[in-house]
Amino acid sequence: MKRPREAAADVPDAHGLTVLHRVRASSKLVPWHVAAVTCIAACPDGSVFAAGYDDGKVEVFDGALFNCLARIPGSDGSEISSIAWARAPGDAHWRLFASTLDGSLLELSCQQLQPIAATDSFGGAIWCMRPAPAAAGVVKQLAAACGDGSVKLFAVHGAVAGAEYVKSLPRVEGNVLALAWHPDGRSIVSGGSDGCIHCWDVQRGTERQRITVGTSSAAPPCVWSLTVLRDGTIVSGDGDGAVQFWDGRFGTLLARHQQFAADVLALAASPDGASVWASGVDPR
């Protein structure tokens, strides 16, 4: 399964990349291959943000000046799917984690410019990874949406590199493509290729509720993006181009917005939950 992509304006080369510029070196033309940005995550303290690319590299930028502070090379076939920042008790600084479609959860060092620890997902490709809500400047838990139909939970410990696998929530049909934490940190919502939103109790590991996002009897649309507002309202973006708002307690549909012609791949909400932004495959 592949994430939908926006079509390039120019004709791509044999590798599927569009040549934007060629640099002359040693009397030869050297192709300049541009990697697509797949994810962006800001450090909770606002000082920096990191961007992941489809060639596996990660870059860290100054949050005020936007200049690149660190560039961590990737490896072939390790497309970055998500980036997260975590900080366990005892850590002096925020730590950078990245998930890949080859099923790895990496901790990256901005000083050494390389991964310093890798943890297997135990569930195949990681389509999405999200940190638990910050509490008193601490984020010590990560959740990963995996290709085997499960959400895996990982713990981050102070002064110990990498993330420790903790447990798996029950598997559902298809791939889990998106997830979001409730602001209280006690529950997670996930969605995927089964066309449903699953609401999980993190501590008990049980499913509290299941919401079907499709509006017809045809094949259900993939749920590509999720976020949970401060009041518990669930917002979903799907393969039909719809952004839908759901009552977090009863699972009833509150509003549906059909502003897109294709998959909605990203959602973001203001801290107060008053505004929600959406983006997807089409250029709207």
TrEMBL record:
Pfam families: WD40 (PF00400). The keyword Calcium does not apply. Signal peptide: none annotated. The keyword Nucleotide-binding does not apply. One of its GO terms (cellular component) is t-UTP complex. It comes from the Eukaryota. GO terms for molecular function: RNA binding. Keywords: WD repeat. WD repeats lie at residues 169-210. GO terms for biological process: maturation of SSU-rRNA from tricistronic rRNA transcript (SSU-rRNA, 5.8S rRNA, LSU-rRNA). Transmembrane segments: none annotated. PANTHER family: U3 SMALL NUCLEOLAR RNA-ASSOCIATED PROTEIN 4 HOMOLOG (PTHR44163). This is Uncharacterized protein.
